[in-house]
Fold this protein.
Amino acid sequence: MNSGLNNLSITSAAKKLAAKEISAVDIARACLTEIEKRNPSLNAYLEVFDDVEAQAKAADARRAQGEKNTLLGIPMAMKDNILIEGRKVSAASKILQGYTASYDATVVRKLKEAGGIFLGRTNLDEFAMGGSTENSAFSVTKNPHDERRVAGGSSGGSAAALSAGMALGAFGTDTGGSVREPSSFCGLVGLKPTYGGVSRFGVIALGSSLDQVGPFARSVADVEILFNTLRGQDPLDSTSIDLGAYPQKKLTKKLGVPRKLFEKGVDADVLESFNASLKKLEGQGYTLVDVEIPGAALALAVYYIIMPAEASTNLARYDGVRWGVRHEGKTLFEDYAKTRGEGFGPEVRRRIMLGTYVLSSGYYDAYYGKATEARAQLSREVGAALEKCDAIISPTAPCPATKIGEKSDPLSMYLMDIFTVTANLTGNPAISIPGNPVSREGKELPVGVHLTAAHGNESTLFAIGRDLEAK
Amino acid sequence: MISREEVQHLATLARLELSDKEIESLQKDMSGILEYVGQVSAVAGAGEGGKKPMPKLHNVMREDALREENDPLAGKEKSLREAFPKEKDGFNVVRKIIQKDE
């Protein structure tokens, strides 16, 4: 029988730890027990670290010395594309086989300083390319709410680990929705911070103008704690900024609803659930205003030009020379082509090819050039919409978790990102918060509500989020 | 649909060895995806402000100075060496890159 400590929120676990009702070792053991029980079938963790109890003991010792951090002794799950010194990191790709991180990512350093415990590294779509973890080289992660379904992606392992009680908090990266979509599918709160808000030093890059590290948690309050631990400018990441530099907006309790965007293509009961969330917020004194973001209809097309372009460039470094796997041929060219052809999985190869296409001479202006212009237009439209309201509200995804193998055509899989990619293209902070669940084949499946706020105004997302999750 | 030769040419540029079967499926997948993302050509660029660059973009420079503290790679030579796919006497073994084209 498990103690149940593995299902606590960070906030309540921190209180119990501070009151010395429980120890970090107690919580860590509860998580490890649950991992032993559920991970073999869910495949959320690719590796569970063998020193979790030792880490927990060290945290308890720090507390005995008088340390009081909220995260001291809180066990968490880390997506396997974020470097922890001395641990393996794979990005769920065969090309990084045998690679051990030489240093800590800045977010990891900050979490270690806060006293957080790392339970293990979690599954993802290879190099974070996907929305279901079906593109992992190490098999799919199943959804704890219905094991026939995906946990979402690309940070599906982190979402499933937390959702199943195998951690108290978790981290992912979000390039086009990779934290928010699995949050929606697994019933969690997931945040994509403002672009530049969190350092990316030591995080394996996908699309560098889009990527952000984001936390998963069981409540808005927990996500806020994790975000405040991660945020801040970092001299090791020149794209990081101090978010305090953005104007902080006063809450007017107005929500912008871009109705046109989900007139088509959203499951009827998902829309019903979304409308119920709107009603709830209205009951709490919010006013709904219509906003139009015509460019958002094009956002997905823009995204699937910019992201593969940046990915194909970022992934040029996997050449078998400095780390990972090397497959040798007869010439230098063959070394590269074999290493990359065999090391990368099919979706990664597909996106490198797409990126190479849209960047190649003759097509650059028609694709990448146009996408950059459309992106600037989209930023202006989102900025204008946010002049009229505190946040833009929509469903997080057009449907609940899909069945494993259901989305076999790459384009139909890409369409899952329709509501989440805009925030990455414009750099705005966005959050997914559980709304009313929907029912599929006798199972209750979670569905998320998505909020986007002005740059640097994560506090707005947390304020609305708290109202949304209030019973 | 994208031709077989075009896919092969891109694979060469991207340094990817692809099987015949994969080239065939990429012809189909890429054509479908390019048709979808090609929507951008019709809409963007026209009208007011279409050519404006992304807002608030500027380059970030740092001082060209030796990092004396907080160097995350200080003392990590050993682990960097251990990451080499092929190592000999502490050196990374690589192929000679100046050679006749074959």
